[in-house]
Amino acid sequence: MKKKILSLIIATMLVASMLTACGNKNTDTTDSASKETTVVGSDGDGESAPEHVTGDAPASGDASESTNTPTTFEEKVVAASEHAIETFGSDGIPELDMEFTTEALNSYIEGEPSNRQAIANCFLNATMNDTTFVYNPKNYSSTLEMIEDAQANYKFGDNIFRSQDNRDEQIANAIDALVESLGTHVVVMVIDAYDSHPVMFYCDNGIGYGIHTANDEHIEFDTGSYASEGYDPSNNPHCYNVYTDGTVETQF
Q1: What is the pLDDT of residues 61-120, one digit of tens each?
Q2: Residue 2 pLDDT greater than 50, yes or no
Q3: CA dihedral 182, 185, 191, 196 (to 10 degrees)
Q4: How many CA atoms within 13 Å lie on the side-chain side of 170?
Q5: If pLDDT is split at 50, 70 and 90, which confidence band does 229 have?
Q6: Cβ distance 155 to 131 under 8 Å?
């Protein structure tokens, strides 16, 4: 009888031991899985989590590479201001009451439509496209030289005037004849001006002139959409024909 009782006690102890061993094994597995999740999914242990690369992530090393290319709008305006000062000098364009500080350019861009806004936008667009859209006649010996330089720099088409016809010399002579007859002179030439015409010649009288039509007989110039402050476009002509012999005819 005693032997049976002893055998029963020993059997009970063995079962209890086996159950305890199984419980420890499950606990170890759970802890191991928990640690693995922590390493992969968080940096709670003070170490950096593994890098997860997706299709949108920059290539390795890109983040450490730095360039001087402006990225924010503010940086682009600063670069446009620097470009403007290089082209015209720190005095800006006094004839148009236009300054080239960052604050001034930003005020033109965000202000009411004007020829100053058109010029400022072209400086900004030139910065964004790494090209030249604004030209200073004082940097050239003639209007023709300025136009030819603009043609050589233009990378968005075959012709700055959006025409397949090569009329650079005729156009240069015509603009010279026009401004002489009006008693004014060109202070800035703008390409892709977002004004009335693709190329605008802004003069010291506060008006911009652009080419409407051109043929072998004459070139028609129209005034731009905007003018300087103080100029009354309602009491001034808007359209001129300039003939190849230099004759300027007011249309209306």
Answers
A1: 444 344 577 889 999 999 999 999 999 999 999 999 999 999 999 999 999 999 999 999
A2: no
A3: -20
A4: 19
A5: low
A6: yes
Q: How far is CA 6 from CA 17, 20, 135, 187, in A?
A: 17, 21, 110, 116
Residue with tokens 């928990």, as numbered in its chain: 34
Residue at 52: amino acid letter: H
64, with CB counted inside 10 A (0-12, 13-18, 19+), is exposed
The string of DSSP codes covering the chain is -HHHHHHHHHHHHHHHHHHHHHHHHHHHHHHHHHHHHHHHH--TTSSPPPP---TTSPPTTGGG-------SHHHHHHHHHHHHHHHH-TT-BGGGTB--SHHHHHHHHHSSS-HHHHHHHHHHHHHHHTS--EE-GGGSSSHHHHHHHHHHH--SSS-TTS-SS--HHHHHHHHHHHHHHHT--EEEEEES-SSSSSEEEEETTSEEEEEEEE-SSEEEEEEEEEE-TT--GGGS--EEEEETTS-EEE--
Q: Within 13 A of 100's CA, how many CA atoms are on the CB side? A: 20
Location of structure tokens 């159950």: 19
60 touches 155 (CB < 8 A) = no
Residue (of 115, 137, 97, 93) closest to 233 by Cα position: 115
